[in-house]
Design goal:
Aminopeptidase, eight-stranded mixed beta sheet, 8 strands, single chain
């Protein structure tokens, strides 16, 4: 597995209820509305602070598109097929091709919560990672972000431990991250 596998990944995925697509500048309005409507739930997401205006959302989407095109990561924006509403953005990042392994990130629109849509999207990305040859998918969650930790566990990830003082939080303070992971051979979640 190498960068060519990321560049050759499908630009669109479909699940039972969702369409997942690579980011484009045309998604800026949906991303802006989602982030600004969800700020109360996004206090652990540094890039979402202090919210977006139209220009910041456009730059965010364009930067994400450039990162995907360069093969740095895989980013998908999830839309509910029936309504066309933006559900959230998910990504596979920090690839280590020697193992191979990567991390998954997920940020959902709070207005679409509790319907299982983000779980459906995240499971599709985990399946994509394994299909590309990844052997280990990790989630790093701020120790204080219990919702994110529970979400990762719902993806079949196992709690492995705490990485103390490994990153900076949205306010710039050192924070602890919980490491969770799922291996390719692990049983899928029920």
């Amino acid at each position: 597995m190498d960068v060519s596998d990321l560049k050759g990944a499908p630009p669109q995925l479909a699940t039972a209820r969702l369409d997942l697509v690579w980011p484009r500048a045309a998604h800026a309005a949906a991303v802006c509305e989602s982030v600004n409507s969800s700020l109360g739930e996004l206090r652990f997401v540094a890039w979402a602070q202090p919210g977006f205006d139209d220009d910041a959302a456009r730059r965010f989407c364009e930067a994400d598109a450039e990162r995907v095109a360069a093969g740095d990561c895989l980013i998908y924006f999830a839309f509910e097929r029936e309504s066309g509403r933006f559900v959230g953005n998910l990504d596979l990042h920090h690839f280590d091709f020697r193992v191979p392994r990567c991390q998954i990130g997920y940020v959902g629109d709070a207005r679409m919560a509790r319907r299982g849509l983000m779980r459906e999207a995240a499971l599709a990305l985990v399946d994509l990672a394994f299909g590309l040859g990844v052997e280990r998918v990790e989630a790093w969650c701020d120790l204080r972000n219990t919702r994110s930790i529970q979400f990762a566990q719902g993806l079949g990830m196992q709690y492995e431990g705490v990485l103390r003082g490994i990153e900076r939080d949205a306010e710039g303070a050192l924070c602890d991250q919980v490491l969770l992971a799922r291996l390719k051979g692990d049983a899928p979640p029920g």
